[in-house]
TrEMBL record:
InterPro entries with a match to the protein in the record: HTH_MarR-typ, WH-like_DNA-bd_sf, WH_DNA-bd_sf
Identification of the protein by name: MarR family transcriptional regulator
Gene3D superfamilies, per database record: Winged helix-like DNA-binding domain superfamily/Winged helix DNA-binding domain
Biological process terms in GO annotation: regulation of DNA-templated transcription
All residue ranges annotated as the HTH marR-type domain in the record: 24-68
Highest taxon in the source lineage: Archaea
Organism: Halopelagius fulvigenes
Length: 79
């Protein structure tokens, strides 16, 4: 049986399909970098950057850095 997706916040109902997909992917898989999202989902880097920026601006993602390499930004869902 497949796991159900986390409920989409009301203010994301008008978001682009890519933004919703990225939100669900990070909520289900945990912290991911832009590169990991591009590889995993097949979106362009620009699509991922626009969507993650929107999610950060709306308060649904937070930016942090990998502990082993501070050059890489991770996106995580806030607690």
């Amino acid at each position: 049986m497949s796991e159900s997706l986390p409920e989409l916040p009301d203010d994301l109902r008008d978001a682009s399909p890519a933004t919703k997909h990225i939100y669900h992917t990070i909520a289900a898989n945990g912290p991911l970098t832009t590169s990991e999202l591009v590889e995993m989902l097949g979106y362009t880097g620009e699509t991922v950057r626009v969507a993650t920026r929107e999610l950060v601006d709306r308060g649904h993602l937070e930016r942090t850095h990998r502990h082993d390499d501070l050059r890489h930004c991770l996106f995580v869902t806030p607690k």
